[in-house]
């Protein structure tokens, strides 16, 4: 006999099967969401571009072939281009190596105090640009650099490192931005399945071999994305090459862009030509990266098969690696921070010495906290802008990344390319474009926090995209398909499966945008008003006034505050997404 | 295998369409024929003065015959009626706090709203705002060269203040007035440069004893232009000869970027001497005990003028005039500048200034240098590119 059991009522919930009328609305809303995201993206990116091209055509000598030739001719251009390329590639290499190695160490090793480790790796990013460069000058300058003095006193006078040189420039800029790579690779490495590395080890590979042939290829999308950003950014970097390069006669192309934008009449045609060059380089690089990442399934480690990310036992390599990183931290984080603290305690700069200790004073801190000219307003505005722009960027870019990677939309690669365009616009051009556009807009945007918000979201979009796509590339389609077959809408799938799995990348991206938006200057200084003062302007003012001591005090306060924030986020981040064991 | 709803051609268009529609809207924002020729030149109406027909000119004319407390009272009255008594000051000044506070104390009911940035940014902003016919600044305070650019674009009202005659003659321009000067001189670290070694003249900076110790700030086009024109007129040199002096100096120097950076490095001892530093910076550091010195000054002294200008499109011209008067008054703004170790433009105070030297600044044709700025900039570029190491 066969007994048939019927499940009691209420156990199995009824859902509309795919294709039923009730689902239409949901699908239409989804399309609208996608359209809204792409529309916003296109508007934000293309409006400054249109402005730049239009201005380039209508002012100065225009954008003809002749003038493109003119922009790149002139004595010394060949050398400048060479310096620019060497500098960009060099600093990108430094960031990639140090950032990736640090991330690997942080994720894989059994090191204690991980939140502290994580926060410390990000410190170089928090220190305002000019301050970072100056602390390194005081560490590595030929005559008064602390490191060089120490080397001389240890009898190693032949080993002198000069900050004012091309190698010096490359190292300082590379170190300043290694946190970008660090956070990107950290997010990517969190999600790689150690089972693959273990298989390699069991098959006889050594640890370095396993890393080289298994781990590294798995995180290639993140690595290439980071490389692209670093190279383009290096080509566009102005400050470090100005302070460290010019005294040694190393001129880069960005000083030309800077001159073009500061002269009167503003040479928009030249600025446009240089920007469009950067744009072409960015787009080309991105196409190459997209090509390489084409076979997406090779990078998908988060799949239907269960896995548990856990530390790779470094075995005999543990001690050399730990010592290596100890040394790295000492030189890259501890020493500059110590220099910063020293500078904040001095009435005027003196090389650290016993006699100088006698002049230690808390004056700079007193000035900082007693400042009446709106430091508190600046902090408040920067905090608001940082949170809102970071959130907006990551929300927009998560959806855009999904569209670019997971959807079957024709021309979806273009979304990725579009999001990368702002890399090629100097901040000054962005600021000028936004002033122009919103002075004529009927909406109350000019003179408010909103115009700064728009500037930050536009500028940091490319970074958000790289963070979002790096972690999205690791999520296999199987998981979404299972959800769809179980009756979930796209919205459900995205919200409950894709987003949490992307969480490490999104969180890292959020943190990155937050930190750098506090430091963004070149657009902010054109766009702010008294009520919308931001911290970066205060930083700039302090430097322009010659108040390096007070600025160092501010730097110390920023580092401590943001380190605490980062550590907190690290702890929170461990609770969502893929669990750490 | 498909991921979520597969989107084909027509639906793809649904997504791209908004982008195609929205973008031209941004471009459409540009009114026809807008270039860098902003509003002022368009309001030339029937007035024989520039800015004809604006509230600014009207206000100036209203109080033209009034003096002293009557003028003050009329302006105060008018100023309170606009923007709740707020006056927008676009300024380059280092510490605007004391000025704003002092002004508020003198005229309760009026406040100063500050936009502080570099002169280049201020110039860009004012040009953009006037091109869009938007009133941004009520009063502008910035570098004379940049102010001359605004003047060229006919954006400024003719200078008008009862305190004008107290300003040194070199600071009185047709449409703007100097409120303070920055003196540029060589500054050196006393621990790295003995008193006997200080430069005896401009040409002396090319001497080999400064090799490896000399920093030349690389963006000071105005200083360069002023020195060269001075050498042409006072010493009868040709331009080529004068520029050669600088080529020799540049070859002997390290080119640095930014006055603050350069000063920090001189104080730190990385460089022994800076050819073109600000006296007031050195004075402030010296007061804190730093080993920095600038006296005796044996080279021609160039004074960079920071000037006050009243834009045609000012929304609160009465308030702006009051603020301008305050900044130019000996017991108001000028006194504050003295306390900040700056050189005021008030002739009497400038003569007594501690920190200034007894050397007189050379005469400079600001308007001419401003007009020829691109040429000077390119020339300076060629000079400093030859320097380094």
Structure description:
The complex is a heterodimer of chains A (581) and B (389). Chain A contains 25 helices and no strands. Chain A is mostly helical and 581 residues long. Chain A has one domain: MetI-like fold. In chain A, helix 7 runs antiparallel to helix 22, helix 10 packs antiparallel against helix 20 and helix 19 packs across helix 20. Chain B has 15 helices and ten strands. In chain B, strands 1, 2, 3, 4, 5, 6, 7, 8, 9 and 10 form a ten-stranded mixed β-sheet that branches. In chain B, helix 5 runs parallel beside helix 6 and helix 7 packs across helix 8. By secondary structure, chain B is α/β, with parallel strands linked by helices. The radius of gyration of chain B is 25 Å and the shape is globular. Chain B folds into two domains: 184 residues, Periplasmic binding protein-like II (D-Maltodextrin-Binding Protein, domain 2), CATH 3.40.190.10; 137 residues, Periplasmic binding protein-like II (D-Maltodextrin-Binding Protein, domain 2). The interface between A and B is large, with 84 and 83 residues.
């Amino acid at each position: 006999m066969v007994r048939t059991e019927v499940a009691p009522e209420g156990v199995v919930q009824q859902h509309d099967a795919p294709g039923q009328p009730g689902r239409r609305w949901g699908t239409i809303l989804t399309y609208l969401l996608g359209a809204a995201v792409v529309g916003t993206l296109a508007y934000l990116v293309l409006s400054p571009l249109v402005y730049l091209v239009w201005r380039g055509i209508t002012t100065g000598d225009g954008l003809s072939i002749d003038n493109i030739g003119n922009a790149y001719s002139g004595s010394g251009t060949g050398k400048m281009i060479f310096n620019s390329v060497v500098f960009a590639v060099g600093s990108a290499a430094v960031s990639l190596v140090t950032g990736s190695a640090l991330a690997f160490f942080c994720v894989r090793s059994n090191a204690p105090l991980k939140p502290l480790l994580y926060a410390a790796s990000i410190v170089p990013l928090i220190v305002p640009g000019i301050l970072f460069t100056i602390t390194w000058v005081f560490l590595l300058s030929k005559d008064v650099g602390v490191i060089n003095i120490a080397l001389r006193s240890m009898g190693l006078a032949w080993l002198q490192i000069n900050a004012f040189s091309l190698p010096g420039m490359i190292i300082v800029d590379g170190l300043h931005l290694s946190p970008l790579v660090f956070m990107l690779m950290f997010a990517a490495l969190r999600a790689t399945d150690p089972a693959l590395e273990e298989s390699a080890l069991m098959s006889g590979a050594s640890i370095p071999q396993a890393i080289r042939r298994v781990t590294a290829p798995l995180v290639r999308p993140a690595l290439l994305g980071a490389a692209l950003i670093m190279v383009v950014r290096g080509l566009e970097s102005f400050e470090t090459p100005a302070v460290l390069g010019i005294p040694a006669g190393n001129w880069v192309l960005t000083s030309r862009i800077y001159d073009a934008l500061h002269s009167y009449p503003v040479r928009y045609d030249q600025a446009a030509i240089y920007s469009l060059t950067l744009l072409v380089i960015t787009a080309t690089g991105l196409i190459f990266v997209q090509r390489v990442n084409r076979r997406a399934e090779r990078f998908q480690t988060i799949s239907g098969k269960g896995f548990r990310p856990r530390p790779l036992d470094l075995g005999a390599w543990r001690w050399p690696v730990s010592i290596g990183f100890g040394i790295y931290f000492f030189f890259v984080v501890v020493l500059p921070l110590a220099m910063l603290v020293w500078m904040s305690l001095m009435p005027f700069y003196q090389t650290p010495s016993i006699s100088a200790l006698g002049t230690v004073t808390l004056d700079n801190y007193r000035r900082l906290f007693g400042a009446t000219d709106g430091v508190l307003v600046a902090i408040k505005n920067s905090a608001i802008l940082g949170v809102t722009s970071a959130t907006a960027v990551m929300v927009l870019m998560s959806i855009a990344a999904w569209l670019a990677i997971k959807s079957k939309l024709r021309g979806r690669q273009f979304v990725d390319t579009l999001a990368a365009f702002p890399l090629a616009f100097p901040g000054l051009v962005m600021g000028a474009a936004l002033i122009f556009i919103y002075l004529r807009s009927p909406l109350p945007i000019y003179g408010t926090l909103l115009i700064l918000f728009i500037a930050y979201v536009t500028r940091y979009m490319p970074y958000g995209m790289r963070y979002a796509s790096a972690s999205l590339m690791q999520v296999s389609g199987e998981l979404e398909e299972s959800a769809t077959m179980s009756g979930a809408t796209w919205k459900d799938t995205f919200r409950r499966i894709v987003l949490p799995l992307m969480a490490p990348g999104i969180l890292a991206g959020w943190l990155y945008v937050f930190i750098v938006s506090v430091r963004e200057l070149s657009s902010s200084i054109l766009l702010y008003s008294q009520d919308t003062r931001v911290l970066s302007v205060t930083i700039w003012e302090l430097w322009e006034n010659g108040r390096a001591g007070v600025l160092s005090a501010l730097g110390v306060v920023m580092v401590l505050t943001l380190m605490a924030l980062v550590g907190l986020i690290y702890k929170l981040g461990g609770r969502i997404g893929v669990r750490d064991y | 295998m498909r991921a979520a709803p597969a989107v084909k051609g027509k639906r793809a268009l649904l997504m791209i369409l908004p982008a195609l529609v929205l973008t031209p809207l941004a471009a459409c924002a540009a009114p026809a024929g807008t270039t860098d020729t902003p509003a002022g030149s368009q309001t030339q109406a029937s007035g024989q003065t520039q800015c004809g027909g604006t509230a600014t000119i009207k206000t100036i004319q209203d109080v033209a015959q009034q003096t002293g407390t009557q003028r003050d009272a009329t302006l105060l009255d008018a100023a309170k009626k606009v923007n709740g008594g707020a006056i927008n000051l676009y300024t380059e000044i280092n510490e605007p706090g004391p000025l704003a506070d002092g002004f508020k104390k003198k005229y309760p009911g009026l406040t100063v709203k500050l936009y502080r940035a570099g002169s280049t940014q201020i110039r860009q902003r004012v040009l953009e705002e006037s091109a869009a016919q938007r009133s941004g600044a009520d009063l502008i305070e910035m570098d004379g060269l940049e102010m001359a650019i605004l003047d060229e674009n006919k954006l400024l009202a003719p200078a008008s203040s009862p305190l004008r005659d107290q300003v040194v003659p070199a600071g009185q321009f047709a449409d703007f007035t100097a409120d303070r000067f920055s003196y540029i001189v060589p500054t050196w670290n006393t621990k790295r440069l003995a008193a006997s070694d200080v430069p005896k003249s401009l040409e002396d900076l090319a001497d080999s004893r400064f090799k490896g110790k000399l920093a030349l700030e690389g963006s000071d086009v105005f200083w360069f232009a002023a020195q060269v024109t001075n050498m042409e007129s006072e010493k009868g040199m040709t331009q080529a000869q004068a520029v050669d002096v600088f080529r020799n100096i540049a070859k002997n120097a390290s080119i640095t970027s930014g006055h603050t950076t350069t000063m920090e490095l001189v104080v730190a001892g990385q460089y022994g001497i800076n050819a073109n530093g600000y006296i007031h910076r050195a004075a402030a550091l010296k007061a804190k005990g730093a080993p920095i010195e600038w006296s005796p000054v044996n080279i021609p002294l160039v004074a960079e003028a920071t000037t006050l200008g009243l834009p045609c499109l000012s929304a609160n011209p009465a308030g702006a005039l009051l603020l301008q008067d305050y900044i130019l008054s000996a017991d108001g703004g000028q006194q504050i500048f003295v306390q900040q170790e700056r050189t005021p433009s008030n002739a009497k105070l400038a003569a007594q200034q501690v920190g200034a030297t007894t050397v007189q600044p050379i005469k400079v044709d600001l308007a001419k240098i401003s007009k020829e700025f691109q040429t000077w900039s390119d020339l300076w570029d060629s000079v400093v590119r030859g320097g380094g190491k």
